[in-house]
Hints:
The structure holds two protein chains of two kinds. By secondary structure, chain A is mainly α. Helices cover 75% and strands 1% of the residues of chain A. A two-stranded antiparallel ribbon of chain A has the order 1-2. Chain A is globular, with a radius of gyration of 19 Å. By secondary structure, chain B is mainly α. Chain B has one domain: ABC transporter involved in vitamin B12 uptake, BtuC (Orthogonal Bundle). Chain B has helices at 2-40, 47-72, 80-98, 101-124, 130-149, 159-166, 174-192, 194-204, 206-211, 216-242, 254-263, 275-294, 302-324; strands spanning 154-155, 168-169, 172-173, 244-245. In chain B, strand 2 and strand 3 (172-173) form a beta hairpin. In chain B, helix 3 runs antiparallel to helix 4, helix 4 (101-124) runs antiparallel to helix 5 (130-149) and helix 8 (194-204) packs across helix 10. The interface between A and B is large, with 46 and 43 residues.
Amino acid sequence: MREAAIVSAPNPLQRIPGVAIVLVLLIALFSVIAPGFLSVANLSNVLVQSTILTMLALPMTLIIMTEGLDLSMGAVLTLTSLCVAIVSLATKSMLLGLGAGLLVGTAFGVANGWLVAILGIPPFVATLGTLGMAQGLSLIVSDGQSVVGISHSVRDIYSATLLGVPVPIVMALVTYAAFHGLLYHTRFGTYIFALGGNREALRYAGLSPNKLLIAVYAIGGAMAGIAGLLMTARMNSGHPTAGLGLEFDAIAAVAVGGTSFERGNGWLLGTLLGVLSVGVLRNGLNLISLPSSVQVASVGVLVIVALFLDGLRSRA
Amino acid sequence: MTDITKEAIMPARSFLSQDAIQVFYRLLAAFLICAVLAVLSDSFLSLGNILNVLRQASLTFFIASGLTLVVLTAGLDLSVGANVALSACIAGTVIHKTGSPALGILTGLACGGIVGLLNGIMVTALRIPSFIATYGMLWVLNGLTYWYMAGETLHGFPAGFRQIGSGYLFGLPIPVYLLLVFLGIGTFFAQRTVWGQEIYAIGANPVAARLSGIPVARRLLLVYAVSGTMAGLASIIFLSRLNSAEADIGESLTLPAIAAVLIGGTSLFGGVGTVFGTFIGALILTLVLNGMNLLSVSANWQPLVTGIIVILAVWLDMKTRRRAQ
Lengths: 316, 325
């Protein structure tokens, strides 16, 4: 079975039921109990609000496919969002802000990859450590305060439209296309499957699993940098706790989407549906006026159920 | 044949002495930090500050000691901090509603224990990897606590109850006595009882443990339940010391507890470590954070430093073990 992993094109037919059923059930549930859920305005709201999560959940899928995990993503997003805010405020340039966010995010990604690949520290502890570091740096650079007075060029990204489609959605779609191409149509994508399924094969093929692993974590960090720009634009400020815990929604989306934590198999479309499931769940609970605390708890329950089912499937 | 037997016995012997050496190194590190802080800061060696360090270390130790058992089985409990918050809030409510501290203490311990048991069920019956299961639990508990408290703060508890966290007995803070008691119980349980030794065996080699007849699932349940109950105990100390409870008190507790376990020499890969090591780990971490405080470094630096310490501790642990092999 493990030998098959390196060439296993994912078998969507086997998985479409799980996550698609969850999504359809959630939509059906909330269209009945939540007034206004099915309105065009609300549905497009769900899509726009899911964009940041999409940009985290896609790289998280790749990381989990390598039998890894990145708990630092939410904290790194917070830090990059602050970097975008501070640098764009100081230089009056949105691009320099984005550059700073990308740089810091990628640095954290490379550090995560280095700790996991070279030092061999288990991913959940390595990234728990960098979570603390990113959280600490966020508090230090912001001195625990919000960064306000963000320039229009940053703010407008969130509200602007391109051919009638909100720019955040365009960015999320482009990201999805890029990840789809990367994972399914490049050699690097095949290597990612092998990182989780059959690392020895990579070594025999004369490749360095360590470098590939660092690259995968670096992609995660870089995406947190780009998502940081959206975060700052959305909040119209930088806040030292803005993105904390978002890595959990990302992990939830990946788990619900049917990517296995143990077998090195991943499915990007499943993750996208998982992101929408989390988005619909939060939005629906919000519409029936349940506080965000209940939303967090129900996402937690969603993850545990998804993982339990994953465990059942892997034993079957 | 004799060579093989010798090889099989040797690790057991050297393992003990190596443990002693590891503890010695850590004590040395603690003394060095004390010496440096005594030079750098006038107030470090004051009685008030030393008692403060001990009291602070005891809080970290309560959470970390239960966690040590979990890590000994090669598991992890990321929900301890959130568990402390929920248990404290529920115990606080019970004390307010009934006026009985004893009932509140029992509720806090029970709440912590039940959460731990649920963790154990997820890990054993549902076979979810422990770090993911307890990470999910963290957010479930967080959500529950914030929902339950709805932004409120519980404040003002009976004076007798507050003695637990802030009182003194013969010049020493009461939490320090509790620390000594639980250090003794924990060490005895881990080193001198069959169940304790079985926990080491499960961490060292779960398959061998199962084949030799150890009820692995039941021991794992016990370990997670103990970790949860110790979080419940910590919540009581917290409640009586702060004299208030809020939904967010647990957020800064998990990382230090994990740091204390790892600094104390308990290996993430299971089977190696001691409760006493965790006590020294808690002491070292508290000394570092206390020192930063005395040298007027902003508290904003604490998560950064704790994160670096966690990574350094794991890295050092892996390096020493690789060399030992």
